[in-house]
């Protein structure tokens, strides 16, 4: 579904396989009539822990506590059905809070194919706090903004 939404830019099966084998990874799925219509994959990381697929991290706010890294957030509507997308995001944040995590981060590529993604996260309390390069593959790095929301 990620590749359908984003083409070659989307994460591939190997990327998700590695992430889902991580003990820190969580996944939430939205179904409608037995079909997957959205999902989010995220990891819960320790204070100042940086994902292996990040490089050149520059942020204005330090990661002072356990934090949620949203690896993928993909819905069939691609930010067009804001209410449904908000429900998925809030469910992920609630699960993270239940795991004693109050800081949430999402990298969004600087040339995101769905520009409404920036506004979507901003209306949900996320702020652009820096930039990273996301290693999409061993040979490809994607310039991203890092958005952060803290509820502590």
From TrEMBL:
Gene3D superfamilies: 3.40.630.30. It comes from the Bacteria. InterPro entries: Acyl_CoA_acyltransferase. This is N-acetyltransferase domain-containing protein. It comes from Candidatus Gottesmanbacteria bacterium RBG_16_38_7b.
